[in-house]
Amino acid sequence: MATSSRKNPGRPVDPPDGGWGWMVALAGFVVCACSYGVIRSLGVFFVTWRDYFSVTAAQTGLVQSIMTGVLNLAAPIAAALSNRFGGRVVVMAGGVISSAGFVLSLWASSLFHLYITVGFLTGIGYSMSTITTLATVGRYFTTNRLRANSIAAIGASFVSFAFPPLFQYLMDEYTWRGALVLIGGIVLQATVVGALVRPIVLKGDNTHKNPKDTKESSTPSDILSDSTISGTKYSFSKVILRRIASVLDFNLLTETRFLVFTAAVVLFGFSRFVPNIYIVPRARAFGIEEYPSAFLLSILAIGDIIGRALLLLLPEWPKFRRVDQFAVNIFLMGLVTLFSPLAKTYVTMAVYSASYGLLMGGCVPLLYSAIAEAGGANRMSSALGIAMFIRGLGNLAGPPFAGWLRDTTGNFDASLLEGGSCLIVAGLLLFLLQTRFCKPKKQE
Q1: Which of 221-225, 385-389, 428-432 has the lowest mean pLDDT?
Q2: Euclidean distance between the first and the last CA atom of the chain, given in angstroms as a whole number
Q3: Nearest to 218 by CA among 196, 199, 246, 250
Q4: What are the pLDDT digits (tens) for 37-69?
Q5: Which value, to the nearest 10 degrees, does the dihedral of the CA atoms of residues 227, 232, 234, 239 take?
Q6: Nearest to 131 by CA among 85, 192, 90
Q7: Which residues, 6+ apart, have CB-to-CB distance to 225 below 8 Å?
Q8: Predicted local distance difference test score (pLDDT) of residue 152
């Protein structure tokens, strides 16, 4: 059935800006809840893992860092798989893989085991399900793209309110191992809603190489037979890279505008999750009890929900497009975080959590809309895959570096200052897109 729909995907159309796209956005709501919602809430495990395995803050933070890093680093692979086999199959398979990562953590005997299961395996599954769903949402919409992205991304905000205290309760009742298994059951719901991700063929798609130009068969023998070209044998990894290159438009990397955009994105990824990971252990370090500390993430999620709701009221001006609004948004996130070390009581920590959450609510929908503007709707899968891969480099390095700063200085203030500084620089970089040097050659 999947192969049949891929061979006959339907007549090329303009983005319908609605229709079944709203069902895809609904699928995105659940997928983002199962991915980003869980990632944001895993901070409640930080102190437990650090004490259980007797490791440093940098080593503990690497669990979430690997997960978010792999999620984004694997984006080109997810985009290539989606273009080759169809989004629906990739999303459903991703749900199974990410769930398996949590379930296999039941037998974790060291932190390295969690790096492999919760970090790498779950990150791969998240990439397949989340990146594919959000890319498909972007292809269905034009003027309503921000609204659709907001509907999809707000799923993470809603569950981020409930998950931190829920995860703390599951740890208290079933230990952290049992809690991870139950989280795996929650994450598996992404497989169910993956059936709603119906592929769409746009009129502009035929301007790039079509996967149908490659062999329809993708059996191991076919792939290996392609590995010998002009008498030269290629390794299997090189063949895979050629397959990815055949369905992704890497010409984006020759455009100055997109390169500046990705430079800002990597700084954004380097620092965005630092508050989510370290806000709970910082509160615990000030003597705040477990459940009130975990509730700081819920407060952040409340601000996130309000921020996404307010974002729907934000118009788009010809000279102040979504990419410019994204720049202002992350600049303010950085500014607020620079003042966060002043929060030394529970009330001031709650104020910071609400403020950061309010601004964070706009960053994800604006990011995906900005990617569509930077790369073009017809190249959404390629632009998203490349941008998320580059952001993954920041995701992978940022939290461990912030943890290293904490281990070196003995407190979390340096980590927050570093995160705020990177966000401010990322916002300033995006303002360069308004200069003549970065103007697009043609309107997408």
Answers
A1: 221-225
A2: 34
A3: 246
A4: 898 888 889 889 988 998 888 888 889 889 988
A5: -40
A6: 90
A7: none
A8: 86
Q: Determine the Cα–Cα distance for residues 178 and 45; give it in Å rounded to an integer.
A: 12
Cα separation values, 401 from 57, 234, 274, 297, 412, Å = 10, 37, 10, 21, 12
Residue pair 302/164 in contact (Cβ under 8 Å)? The answer is no
Residues across the chain: 444
Q: Are 377 and 142 in contact (CB under 8 A)?
A: yes
Q: Each residue of 289-306: pLDDT tens digit?
A: 888 888 898 898 888 888
Residue with tokens 């991870």: 180
Q: Cα 377 to the chain's mean position, in Å?
A: 19
Query: What is the rounded CA–CA span in Å between residue 53 and residue 45?
Result: 12
Residue 300 and residue 356 in contact, taking contact as beta carbons nearer than 8 Å: yes
* Bridge partners of residue 317, in order along the sequence: 320
Phi first, then psi, for residue 275 (nearest 5°) are -60, -40
Q: How far apart are CA 383 and CA 79, in angstroms?
A: 9
Hey, what amino acid is at 110?
A: S
Q: Looking at the predicted structure, is the pLDDT value of residue 255 above 80?
A: no
pLDDT in tens, 375-422: 665 676 677 777 877 887 887 888 888 888 888 888 888 889 999 999
Which token pair is 194?
């993956």
Question: How many CB atoms within 10 Å of residue 434?
Answer: 15
DSSP helix, strand, coil percent of the chain (3-state; round to 5): 80, 0, 20
Closest CA to 193 of 103, 301, 87, 82: 87
Distances (CA, A) of 49 to 54, 114, 405: 8, 10, 19
With beta carbons less than 8 A apart as the criterion, state whether 346 and 292 touch: yes
Closest Cα partner for 268 from 333, 325, 314? 333
3-state secondary structure at position 98? helix
pLDDT of residue 9: 54
* Residue 99 in tokens: 């769930």
Closest by CA to 160, choosing from 343, 356, 330, 334, is 356
Query: How high is the pLDDT of residue 215?
Result: 38
CA–CA dist 283, 438 (Å, integer): 43
Give the mean pLDDT of 233-252. Answer: 60
Distance (Å, whole) CA 414 – CA 19: 48
Across the range 102-110, mean pLDDT stands at 92
Q: Where are the alpha helices (DSSP H) in 286-345?
A: 290-311, 322-338
